[in-house]
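Example record for the data management plan.
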Amino acid sequence: MEKLPMRALGFLLLAVLPSLALAEGAVRTLDCQVRQVCDAEGACNKVSDTVQFRMAPQKLQEDGSGKYEISYAQEKAGMDALSYAGPFYWETKSEHDTLLASSETRFVWHRLVLDPTPAAKVIFLDCVLH
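Corresponding structural encoding:
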């Protein structure tokens, strides 16, 4: 069996380490200011509130897509991501949620409740990633 030269081993480690860090618990935290909440009819209200999302990787691909665990307020759920930057999808016992990045600091959170009658909110957030 042929040994890998040290330089090749070094490059291999550099290529693999970022994905290992994501898979091994590089938990991301988004600290967000709620700026505006809109209902399904498009009526919006300015709001001054906060929400913190904690996103713990469970099983990810190199591009950040895959499974996370999200927690915020009193909720915890499994979450799917299409890439490292989202969009992010999850369900709680009463809601279907989507979080979309609009820029490095701006996010749109869509919350859909289906029972007893469908109702949606669109929440505009300014966030800092930790």
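Summary line stored alongside the record: Residues 95 and 116 are 11 Å apart (CA to CA).
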